[in-house]
């Protein structure tokens, strides 16, 4: 089985592309700029979103300080603080069988830690991608290489996995936010103190 590559806005039925997919590994990667300046620290996160477009509770925000969803359906495998090296920089596991019935989608976002304070943005990040791998077979199912110019944006929704008529689907989003991770999570109902 060969992996499919999507463009921004594209979507794919994961259920049809890989009927055996139960445990999805979401691999996220990027290369920071090679010029001088402060180091980049990009952080991946996941949000469990219900039909009303909001999280059910604060526990639905999975990130470096809350690595596992309360029901075990989503697990963040930890923070990579540099983005160095080949392959995935951060990974999130999604057990599709454990996703609660009242969760309509899992939104995958990446933000630049202290991006605004450091004058950093996604326009300075190269070769960003998001891919879905069948954790059990280790086969890549779909990949989305972000190519947008996001020169003013410090966070971005890379993709989402969502339910549609009994299927699990993947959507390549690539929507940037100039308001950092704070802007994304508050849009989905997380209150930050």
TrEMBL record:
TM stretches of this protein: none
Positions of the TerD domain: 4-188
CDD domains linked to this entry: TerD_like
Superkingdom, natural source: Bacteria
InterPro entries for the chain: Stress/Tellurium_Resist (IPR051324), TerD (IPR003325)
Pfam families attached to this UniProt entry: TerD
Family indicated by similarity: Belongs to the CAPAB/TerDEXZ family.
Protein name according to UniProt: Tellurium resistance protein TerD
Organism: Paeniglutamicibacter cryotolerans
């Amino acid at each position: 089985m060969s992996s499919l590559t999507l463009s921004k806005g594209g979507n794919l039925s994961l259920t049809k592309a890989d009927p055996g997919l139960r445990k999805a590994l979401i691999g996220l990667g990027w290369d920071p700029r090679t010029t001088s300046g402060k180091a980049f620290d990009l952080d991946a996160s996941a949000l469990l979103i219900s039909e009303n477009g909001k999280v059910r509770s604060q526990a639905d925000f999975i990130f470096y300080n809350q690595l596992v969803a309360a029901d075990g359906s989503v697990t963040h495998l930890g923070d990579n603080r540099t983005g160095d090296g080949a392959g995935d920089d951060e990974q999130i596991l999604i057990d599709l069988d454990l996703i609660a019935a009242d969760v309509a989608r899992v939104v995958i976002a990446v933000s630049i830690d202290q991006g605004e304070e450091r004058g950093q943005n996604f326009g300075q990040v190269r070769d960003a991608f998001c891919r879905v791998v069948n954790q059990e077979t280790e086969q890549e199912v779909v990949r989305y290489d972000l190519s947008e110019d996001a020169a003013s944006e410090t966070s971005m929704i890379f993709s989402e996995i969502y339910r549609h008529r009994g299927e699990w689907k993947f959507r390549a989003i690539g929507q940037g936010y100039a308001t950092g991770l704070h802007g994304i999570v508050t849009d989905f109902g997380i209150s930050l103190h």
